[in-house]
Fold this protein.
Amino acid sequence: MKTSIKNILTILAVLTFSISFAQNIEGVVTTDQNIPLEAANVVIKGTTFSTITNSEGRFSIESQGKLPLTLLVQYIGYNTAELEITSIPASPILITLREENKLVEVVVSSRRRIEKVQDVPIAVSVVTGKQAEAAGAFNVNRIKELVPSVQLYSSNPRNTGINIRSLGSPFGLTNDGIDPGVGFYVDGVYYARPAATTLDFIDVEQIEVLRGPQGSLFGKNTTSGAFNITSRKPSFTTGADFELSYGNYAFLQAKASVTGALGKKVAGRLSFSGTQRDGLIDNVATGRPTNTLNNQGFRGQLLWTPTENTNVTFAGDLTTQRPDGYAQVVAGVAPTKRAAYRQFDAIIADLNYQLPSLNAFDRKIDHDTPWRSGQDLGGVSLNVDTKIGGGTLTSTTAWRFWNWDPSNDRDFTGLQVLAKSQNPTRQTQITQEVRYAGQLTSKISGVAGVFFIDQTSQTDGTEESGDAQWRFSQSSTSSLWATPGLFEGYGIHTDARIRASSAAVFGQLDWAITNRFHILPGLRYNFDKKDASYSRKTYGGLQTTDPALLALKKSVYSDQAFDSDTDNTDFSGNLTLTYKASDKINAYATFAKSYKPVGVNVAGLPTNSSGQPMTELAVVKPEKVYHYEVGVKTSPFKNSILNLTLFNTDIKDFQTNVQAAELGVNRGYLANADKVRVRGAELDASFVINSHVTINGAATYTDGKYVKFTNAPLPLEETGLTVDGVQVAYKDVSGTDLPGASRWAGSLGGELSDHAKFFGNAGKIFFAADGYARSEFSSSPSASKYLVVQGYAIFNARLGFRASQGLSIQIWGRNLFNKDYYEQLLPASGNTGQYAGVLGDQRTYGVTFKYSL
């Protein structure tokens, strides 16, 4: 590694610096109290050229004949300053250093302009790229440990739901026919598929998590919040970062980023991230561990500045994932209301089968169908920012794709119940957003824009029975079920297609009635259209003309086809009042009427008594969201933040995912719950105690209920319920908790640090620890006592040395107390009683090296 770093340094030095006429750059370094700093280190970034200040804080350093360049000014106990020099100054430059461990006032771009987060009348949490890297939060699933209002549930990348305040995506299997309620943006580009949240971040500058509806600020309507992620931008000053992590289970993660000028008006940036790890679950059938990590991602950017007022950025990215995973482990067996011979334990006894372990946290499986979760995600974008008048006109054009290549063992056993379960999908999207943001008059500022997205999704799926299917599907005592080869190789080929288009006009004003009191109205007009087709055809199994045997086969899989198309328009909006009582207190109140577009089912429908698809379920009504929120952002004393938010969200026609008992409905189907309500409170705090100690924390209380849901699916233990001899299909679950909604969740972290030097570099030695906890939550659309995930808490820590330039190192550990916990529970196909768990990672630990030039 040392040789590689030396070679890289040599190459960069040769490429970047040449011997030529050198002029001196002179300056003075002081504190923010105007006190000269003696012996401050002044470095030309990307080189080994440096000097120190004298007793008057003065310095002089040769430019080495190359401009532009960046000066790094370092002094123990103060934040490092960076200053770009484009020409030799005629007089000494003044550089002011800010004392470390003063609370940094984070700026955000959530309202399409740069402003302090404490001044924004929105509940927003900010995680910088450096904070995410330090905490090992290399994807959204890790970010939820820092922002407890975020929930992410993923049984595999396709079946991923991201929620904020327990709202956003239906809990359970993903259906492409509806839109997510949480927007996911990277550098202004909307990512339509939630699978993007399972991949590694690449060279991230900042992550903003906005809570609550944001339809008047963002191109795509977002009913429960948005992730606004910005990447590090190309720089005209040469720089590079290299990072390498190694841990147990052969964890290996490498990151690299290089930036610099490619011409007088063109700069570039190239970034890479790769993660590998051995499996955390042992497959005793194959003799090797599964649930590995295998991610690689690239991102390239070109910045062109044709004029002082215009920036043009072209970006391209490609991320691949090739793990052996995401396998789930049988977590238990629920007795159902079916006959004794249809209970899971009786079924496997007849087949002379035993589970490899009755304890899920033995982390043993014997799955006989390979687990495969290959996905490719990428695209290109063109962003143009140009200053016009008192604002900025922005155009963002993008094309993206997502390819999904899976294989699953959805019976969760070593039996050949489902020999194949795979639904490869290809999704493409084109988006265009144009908006103007800026000062319109002396009292009014705002943002206005138009947005368009057109996306297509095609799934060509296969589900095929094995030699044990007959026993799991058996619904009578007839000996015909055991007919040799009746179901073996019997399956369905699925062709599901959807095209979804959406167009919107949106805007929000900020009217300063006084310097302290502002009114912020926002409006949005949306048009959405969806066309879908679904077709499945049966194949294989025993070839017979016997009507009785054909009827048995049809009870497992049958042909089905339907088309649906729908469109809808909607006016929505919001009104916010904000009052800045003082420089330390900013209060606001918001009402928002929001909207999630109409949905369509593209994964099969339940059948009626005649065996025909219930096409009345093909279209899912749009959600109507009514949101109320009040908040106060405060700085109660020096270097502190304490923010409180209270919210209430009512949703009519809540879109929820229902898992059918029929095997043929292999992805679940969508339905509407009449009314849902979520209310709660959030607390965010950050304190700098002194120059050595910082503390930060967040807590959320959430009460999510089905106010009215009379046609909910039966919970697992009530499968097969009959009343007066008639089998019951639905249940009234009004008043019960929403799935995925923990009543309490929180995070708490702190850092102890001191000044130090490491290999001649000035920096800080530190010890940091953080914890994340949440209370129990339901893991089923209809509350089931067997599918309740118990509350848990995990703790992480890290010890190391960090510097803004040169070598940094840290030793880290996650889930230090090796807590066994589930992230999700889900029933097996056919609801025979067994259910599986998505396991949280056990204890992991390792070391990270970072070298910055």
